[in-house]
């Protein structure tokens, strides 16, 4: 029996498995004829990303993230094989990566602009790297780290970079790209285990924000020369502390503000005024605006992974029946590295 991840009810704050999301049997008929412009795919890997929470709002705060209707399957990034296709660009046995419903078997439609971002990646069929990397370090999160750090952060060798949620999918890549570029790299994360990992992959100084009583003082201690680039994944108190420790002409890469995602209210930044006298640039960005960098990003990061100049840690849940729990656990920061769900092998 085939299964899917279902949105049962809109959550307030953190969702609960069984109440807001669940794994249910799918009614898909694998023998049914495909309509024109449709393809049937078999999902192998599901990527658990923070935007899945954003899709559980009745109306999204982010135009890139359409809301999911109650009683409908959740969507997200997957890696899959095409089973049969009525879409010209997809052939049987192609490996495809992109946004699809979170189902063991699902259909994609060429007429839906959102789902049509799914594209063929047959180049990875014989890759020596794990297939799951293509929804992680070599997929959307890696692309986010690369574009955000280089294009928005504009770092220069010798500068000090600070990354929050540093042990997550995006953060661990940002820090390692910073080291490759010759930056001094600081990071924060929420457990001692994650802190140990950050040291292992070359971060120069790290701290557990959950056991640090004063983040601003900690940053002053760890960055005596001040912060030049802050890659912000969390917003909130950490962003406020960075504003106090940022240098003149510092760049703040506003990638995400995960500490605010579970609140229904928008939360202000206490000392935003600091950006005025310090000439700080605070720039938001969406990875979708940097698709032109995809080949460059893929080639460089693939090379660094093969040369072991970069490492990548994943947290794997086996089987789609664990997907709803994996999603909720990741929202609580229980993921050690990029959270994925292994659904099936190709
Ligand atoms: P992950 O799910 O891999 O990691 C997120 C981590 O955030 C968690 O593991 C947790 O680790 C930490 N976290 C959770 N809640 C809080 C909190 N209240 N305060 C501080 N830290 C918290 O996420 P990604 O690496 O995939 O994403 C990182 C950020 O990048 C997110 O904000 C996401 O929305 C954003 N993003 C933006 C994109 C863009 O185009 N702008 C594209 C992709 C992602 P810990 O134990 O350290 O608390």
What keyword list fits this structure?
26% strand, alpha/beta, Rossmann fold, Quinone Oxidoreductase, Chain A, domain 1, binds NADPH dihydro-nicotinamide-adenine-dinucleotide phosphate, 346 residues, single chain, six-stranded parallel beta sheet, 2 domains, seven-stranded mixed beta sheet
Mind sketching the topology for me?
Blueprint: E1 3-7, E2 21-25, E3 38-47, H1 51-54, E4 72-73, E5 75-85, E6 95-101, E7 105-109, E8 119-120, H2 140-153, E9 160-163, H3 171-181, E10 184-189, H4 192-200, E11 205-208, H5 215-222, E12 227-232, H6 236-245, E13 246-254, E14 281-284, H7 294-306, E15 314-318, H8 323-331, E16 338-342
Parallel strand pairs: 9-10, 9-12, 10-11, 12-13, 13-14, 15-16
Antiparallel strand pairs: 1-2, 1-4, 3-5, 3-7, 3-16, 5-6, 6-8
Bound molecules: NADPH dihydro-nicotinamide-adenine-dinucleotide phosphate.
NADPH dihydro-nicotinamide-adenine-dinucleotide phosphate binds at residues 49-50, 141, 144, 165, 167-171, 189-191, 194, 233-234, 255-256, 258-259, 285-287, 330, 333, 335, 338-339.
